[in-house]
Amino acid sequence: EAAEGYQGKGTWELKKIKVLYYNNEKVDFIVVGQRGEINANNKDMAISGQVITTTSNGYRFESEDIKYIAKDRLLKAPDKIKMLGPGDSKGDGLLLEGVGMDAWIEKKEMKILAHVKAVKNLYEGKSFKISSDNAFFSGSSYLARFAGNVELSLDNYKVHGPEAEFIYKSGTDFLQSIMVMGGAKILGGDKYATSETVVYDPYEDKYTLKGLPRVVQNQDEITGEQIVFLN
User: Which residues have a Cβ under 8 Å from the Cβ of 161 and sit 6 or more positions away?
Assistant: First the structure.
């Protein structure tokens, strides 16, 4: 809306700024904010005040400020982040809060750096929560991956593991399942289970355990090549 430059200073100060970041003549990221500053020498930018970053596939990030490092084509937000993911045919998008974000424009990837907490609303009031140390998202697909101390909360059950990934039905935006990998543990009620991977289907309320699966309930124990149970 307005810009001021000062001779010899090498910077421009802007009010109510909108920046479009391109890849191969296509806009992949749009950033808007109340205030901006551009370094005319290295093309770095600082944007602050109710900053909203959106991606071409529907992710929306809210932060108080964000910086653009031109030589790396990197957007970097240091503080609290709120994210709304793209919705799908069965529910709203993922609502997420975290601290810090890096977004690589050329790779079309975003990483929430710490203290990730998110909730996904499904249908008829049903939802699940997920938390982790960090999370990765794609600006060109529906990839969503969580890493470090992952906890998936589903009604009376909690699934723990080092890593989790959202699995979408091929060619669609439909969230088909969540896979917890790298050694998973399920805790709930009077039972617990362990396996290398746990795949949870939120619509059938079904857990599939693979890789040395073991389920213990009171004094009973089941093992096998694969164990499937319904909540």
Answer: 150, 180, 181, 182, 183, 184, 185, 198
Tell me the whole-structure pTM to 2 decimals: 0.90
**Which letter does DSSP use for residue 91 in this model?**
B
Q: Closest by alpha carbon to 55, among 34, 26, 97, 14?
A: 26
What letter represents residue 137's amino acid? F
Distances in Å between the Cα of 115 and the Cα atoms of 30, 118, 131 are 25, 10, 8
Q: What is the three-class DSSP state of 210? A: strand
Over residues 166-211, the pLDDT tens digits come to 988 776 677 889 999 999 999 988 889 999 999 998 888 889 999 9
- CA of 153: how far to CAs of 15, 47, 126, 168, 178, in Å? 43, 36, 12, 19, 12
On whether the CB atoms of residues 139 and 57 are closer than 8 A, the answer is yes
